């Protein structure tokens, strides 16, 4: 893995979304409070730039007329078709329950009675190193 | 092969009773009203099928009465409906009284005399309270297997306005049947009134597309998990695009209707059934393609649409259906659509020629 500095923490607003080019790759970098997340900046469904999307929560329901917002700001909605991607995992949540896996931690699926989809956006490990946001890319990604 | 299988005809029409023949089923007030106001001479007909029109009378049934028509295609059970024009009355009390009279007439004049007929509790969408009362009044008669409404209403079928009716259907194991047609005060098109009957007739199937989407979107199938819905004379070649549009749109706007916890196509499976006649794919190849697109024949119910002229030849079954699918289409699917048929004595006697309900 090669570490790349991609942003300064102080200049990156909370709930901000940025398109970052690093090592020949385009990333969608997201800040939620003190956490940073990165996805490859392409929707695996139709190819849109996810960085042009919006952060959103999602909603659970016990039945018609019942709305329980959850996962506030943790879903990135694709600008083209509105598909939701979990910023923590890249998992699409716009498809049937039958495709749900048990791969998530309890924390990651808090409020998680929802359906996960077949599409997963590629995620990239991100860390904060002092004043900088750092992503870790495989060596082969450097072009 | 199909000639030996038990047949449940999901769409079989009884001739509309004259208002004067409903008098024995009415109380003194309504008898007096109908007689003094000469309402007994009013035909109160829904006009898509005038009785003597060539479209109304299928030559396959020429010279046959109802029992002869059942014999004609070896029908084991026919789910009968009398689409009476009294449903269009504005006076809610007169309408309720006359609809009750129609239902009582069906029981006495038809169900009592022809053991192969099953009935529909015919209700008005305008007055859910009266409709629920009518369902409660008749639910003890197990020969009634569905509640019957017309497709074109002033309020969309998915709307919570109707939910008391749906709750009563679920409670009593009655399917909710929605038949083509309307009150003639609601346009058949969501874009306004057409000028010609030609347009009106073609538009009937489009209404069902709206109904299907509304029932799904407004959460009727989640709210009433045991409710079964049957579309009568809806056609079905429109299903592939409508279901696909439901699924596709849901993926992007799921948060607005979070009670849809699965693709709409999965929610509808096993809950919505459609009758075969009129068969709107133009030929066997197109029929096979339609079936492929909707993922099988589980939602198809055999129907003759007696006495209307929807098919030609010797069998209401269209060409293009596989032999394997016939047991389900002719009877097995109907057992899933109509919960009450599982305990029906005629069905029980039919025994092993039937596919077991899932």
UniProtKB/TrEMBL annotation, chain A:
<keyword id="KW-0411">Iron-sulfur</keyword>
<feature type="domain" description="Rieske">
    <location>
        <begin position="4"/>
        <end position="115"/>
    </location>
</feature>
<dbReference type="InterPro" id="IPR017941">
    <property type="entry name" value="Rieske_2Fe-2S"/>
</dbReference>
<dbReference type="InterPro" id="IPR036922">
    <property type="entry name" value="Rieske_2Fe-2S_sf"/>
</dbReference>
<keyword id="KW-0479">Metal-binding</keyword>
<keyword id="KW-0223">Dioxygenase</keyword>
<keyword id="KW-0560">Oxidoreductase</keyword>
<protein>
    <submittedName>
        <fullName>3-phenylpropionate/trans-cinnamate dioxygenase ferredoxin subunit</fullName>
    </submittedName>
</protein>
<dbReference type="GO" id="GO:0051537">
    <property type="term" value="F:2 iron, 2 sulfur cluster binding"/>
</dbReference>
<dbReference type="GO" id="GO:0051213">
    <property type="term" value="F:dioxygenase activity"/>
</dbReference>
<keyword id="KW-0408">Iron</keyword>
<dbReference type="Pfam" id="PF00355">
    <property type="entry name" value="Rieske"/>
</dbReference>
<dbReference type="GO" id="GO:0046872">
    <property type="term" value="F:metal ion binding"/>
</dbReference>
<keyword id="KW-0001">2Fe-2S</keyword>
Automatic annotation (TrEMBL), chain B:
<dbReference type="GO" id="GO:0019748">
    <property type="term" value="P:secondary metabolic process"/>
</dbReference>
<keyword id="KW-0456">Lyase</keyword>
<dbReference type="Pfam" id="PF04909">
    <property type="entry name" value="Amidohydro_2"/>
</dbReference>
<dbReference type="GO" id="GO:0005737">
    <property type="term" value="C:cytoplasm"/>
</dbReference>
<dbReference type="InterPro" id="IPR032465">
    <property type="entry name" value="ACMSD"/>
</dbReference>
<dbReference type="GO" id="GO:0016831">
    <property type="term" value="F:carboxy-lyase activity"/>
</dbReference>
<dbReference type="InterPro" id="IPR032466">
    <property type="entry name" value="Metal_Hydrolase"/>
</dbReference>
<dbReference type="InterPro" id="IPR006680">
    <property type="entry name" value="Amidohydro-rel"/>
</dbReference>
<feature type="domain" description="Amidohydrolase-related">
    <location>
        <begin position="71"/>
        <end position="339"/>
    </location>
</feature>
<dbReference type="GO" id="GO:0016787">
    <property type="term" value="F:hydrolase activity"/>
</dbReference>
<protein>
    <recommendedName>
        <fullName>Amidohydrolase-related domain-containing protein</fullName>
    </recommendedName>
</protein>
